[in-house]
Design a protein that fits this description.
47% of the residues lie in helices and 15% in strands. By secondary structure, it is of the alpha+beta class. Strand 3 and strand 4 form a beta hairpin. Helix 6 crosses helix 7 and helix 10 runs antiparallel to helix 11.
């Protein structure tokens, strides 16, 4: 049995029920019992009800989903301190930063509670309960099916009906499907929306090593940030108010200062976003051959343009830092995912699994009737649509996700429909529609460098013209290309030199007098953005599938259900793909044999930071004196035998959304924060490779050292329970 699994919290419910049931009256199957026993054998000291307890308080009550599940976090004090990754807080810190107060570069520390900064739109969500509603949902689906064909929002109707049945429950409700509808669970949540930044190190600590070290090892990142959750005076969730008070935590995590050693038990509780471990070989092949190469290629070109301008100016760097960070992460992921798909023969392994599935289907007439054509249909569908999928992806990456002023051009073009519907023959900046557009345009200009955007547009246009056939270009764009003899650079310069949206003063002058819809239509950017529409690509794909009589969406669902049923019948331990619901994963601290003759140690130290420091390279630049502080030996209780440990690896099974998750020891004490995976694990969302999938974590002792010794914010530590 594999020892590292993403385990659904509902299985923990079963563990809990199992623990309080009469001896021998197990409420779960033997595999659930085996998992718990395996965790105990590896070092878990907790009882099931101490991890999740629907009738009391448990570890899960200290775990939160941030901003709906984009990251995970945990409560670490009785007064609502919440810790997560620096890269999860990056956007907030960036938004608060100005050239005069650059919290991204300098860090931020609230030295008293009144200095904590409210973050507009920030939310943290607690899981308050889970219910298996499979039978109920199946009956609702059958009832709705009998009433007529399913529409686009069919499952929304199902969710609405099931939630109404639980309307007496005071919490927010969310229906989640597992294994493409084989099981359904209703989750109950409580969301708090007054969340304030309490502390964050400078980017030179939080993201030390930058893109160079991203997904790699060894790493030396102090990837953490601290918030505080606030409530209304009566302790309930509430929007920001000066009258709000720090949350009185239902449960918070104690912190261990003892450190880690090889083979120590670890577990992670968090909200992983998406895995696709029931994806067919045909889908993975599409990713490998089409999607990942397009994404990594085009986005890398985009990043190179931005980096060129960011390296030339601190002002431009501040403008693009958050955008660059967001895009670079997945760009590298797509590259390394392909490397691992190839290295571990993931497609071959899935094909082997499908041969097994085919035999299982063909061994039973009922299965043949239900699933007999699924594999053949999927192969035909992916073969038939490979061409249009590649074209559409180049279109999306080069134009839809390309230069920022193209996006603003789409909004500008949208004014034509808005004003036409309003039946306005003339308008000016005094009109609400124009005022709204101008406000957005002004903000966009403040957040970009026009020269960088112009160069980016040139690079993206080249991709678009080369990779997307002319039949998908709007007639106006075709004529514009002809006008410049196919020279995309000249076309780009013409747009940026003449469009009113590419210069905020021109735009202001344009709207200063009365204008008509025709005046907008005459702007040269309109001839570009008219060609930006996804419908033609989707219609082409739909036409191909319709002509072949194929429905891959239906067959993908059937494929997952067949895989689930086969594994269930064979008594295998199966777990659902991650879907932003709470999961638990467990493993042990340890290094990795990365490749021939290369073995990675499980820990990195402060000495490694000093060895990497290079103040001529932004990614390895540190604050003056930080190297001396690191080597001073002034580590206090956070050091171990004169060494300050920074990051460590453990074989916990994590993915996007787990960022910021608590890494716990067998006693349920916080020992670190998960912030990354290793490059050898980059196929992990598709196929778990035993021995190679690791979580990369910041040692909580380094976090506490930075807070106390570097930031001088020891008052935060006084709130925590440090063992």
């Amino acid at each position: 049995m594999k020892k590292r699994l993403i385990i659904l919290v509902t299985i923990l419910i079963s563990f809990y029920n199992q623990a309080i049931a009469d001896e021998g009256m197990w409420l779960v199957n033997i595999l659930d019992k085996q998992l718990y026993e395996l965790m105990k054998s590896k070092g878990l000291q907790l009882k099931p009800g101490e991890i999740y307890n629907p009738d009391g308080v448990a570890l899960s009550d200290a775990i939160v989903a941030i901003d709906g599940g984009s990251c995970s976090g945990s409560i670490i004090s009785a007064s609502g301190l919440m810790i997560t990754n620096h890269h999860c807080a990056y956007g907030d810190i960036h938004a608060l930063s100005t050239p005069g107060k650059n919290y991204l570069e300098d860090g931020f520390w609230a030295m008293k509670i009144e200095e904590e900064i409210p973050i507009k739109g920030k939310t943290v969500t607690f899981l308050r309960g889970v219910s298996d509603v499979t039978e109920m949902v199946v009956k609702i689906i059958d009832s709705l099916d009998a009433a007529g064909p399913r529409g686009l929002f069919f499952m929304n109707k199902v969710s609405s009906v099931i939630e109404k049945k639980f309307e007496s429950n005071p919490y927010e409700k969310s229906l989640s499907s597992m294994w493409r509808g084989s099981k359904y669970y209703l989750y109950f949540y409580e969301t708090y929306s007054d969340v304030r930044l309490a502390g964050a190190p400078p980017v030179s600590i939080g993201a030390f090593g930058g893109e160079t070290d991203n997904w790699g090892w060894p790493q030396h990142k102090g990837d953490f940030a601290i918030y505080r959750v606030y409530t209304s005076p009566d302790g309930k969730p509430a929007g920001y108010s000066e009258n709000n008070i720090p949350m009185t935590a239902k449960r918070y995590l104690p912190i261990s200062s003892k450190g880690v050693k090889p083979n120590d038990f670890t577990m992670v509780l968090g909200y992983p976003g998406r895995t696709n471990r029931y994806m067919s070989s045909f889908e993975v092949k599409e990713k490998f051959e089409i999607l990942n190469p397009v994404i990594s290629g085009v986005r890398r070109a985009k990043l190179e343009v931005w980096k060129k301008y960011m390296d030339q100016s601190d002002e431009v760097r501040l403008k693009y830092a958050d955008k660059y960070f967001g895009i670079s992460n997945y760009t590298d992921y797509a590259k390394w995912e392909n490397i691992c798909i190839d290295r571990f023969d993931v497609i071959g392994k899935l094909q082997e699994r499908e041969r097994e599935l085919k035999q299982w289907i063909e061994s039973n007439p009922e299965r043949v009737n239900t699933y007999g054509s699924v594999l053949d249909n999927l192969k035909k569908a992916y073969d038939a649509t490979a061409g249009i999928v590649k074209i559409r992806e180049y279109f999306r990456e080069s134009m839809v996700r390309g230069a920022e002023l193209v996006g603003m051009g789409q909004r500008f073009n949208g004014l034509i429909n808005t004003l036409t519907r309003a039946k306005k023959e003339e308008f000016s900046i005094e009109d609400k529609e124009i005022e709204n557009f101008f406000s957005i345009a002004k903000k966009t200009h403040e957040e970009l460098d026009i020269n960088a955007d112009r160069e980016l547009f040139k690079v993206m246009l080249k991709y678009f013209v080369k990779e997307v056939p002319v039949k998908f270009h709007d007639e106006a764009f075709v004529k514009l290309m002809e006008r410049f003899g196919g020279n995309t650079d000249k076309l780009a310069d013409f747009i940026y030199d003449n469009s009113v949206i590419t210069d905020i003063s021109r735009l202001e002058n344009f709207f200063a007098g009365k204008k008509t819809v025709k005046d907008i239509g005459n702007d040269p950017v309109i001839d570009v953005v008219k060609t930006i529409g996804i419908l033609n690509y989707n219609r082409t794909e739909d036409s191909i599938l319709k002509e072949a009589g194929l429905d891959p969406s239906k067959d993908r669902g059937a494929y997952v259900k067949a895989m689930y049923q086969m594994q269930l019948e064979k008594g295998l331990n199966i777990y659902p793909d991650a879907n932003s619901t709470m999961r638990l994963t467990f493993g042990e601290v340890g290094g990795i044999k990365a490749r021939d003759a290369v073995i990675y140690h499980h820990q990195t130290t402060a000495k490694g930071i000093v060895e990497k420091i290079d103040n001529s390279n932004y990614e390895f630049k540190v604050k003056p004196g930080y190297d001396k502080l690191l080597l001073s030996g002034d580590y206090g209780r956070w050091g171990e035998n004169g060494v300050l440990y920074v990051n460590f690896m453990a074989d916990n099974d994590i993915t996007g959304g787990n960022s910021g998750s608590a890494v716990l020891n067998g006693n349920g004490e916080l020992i670190g924060l998960a912030f990354d995976g290793n490059r050898e694990s980059m196929a992990g969302d598709l196929y778990y490779v035993e021995g190679y999938c690791k979580s990369v974590n910041v040692d909580i002792r380094y976090v506490l050292w930075v807070v106390e010794k570097f930031a001088g914010a020891g008052h935060l530590l006084k709130e925590m329970k440090i063992l």
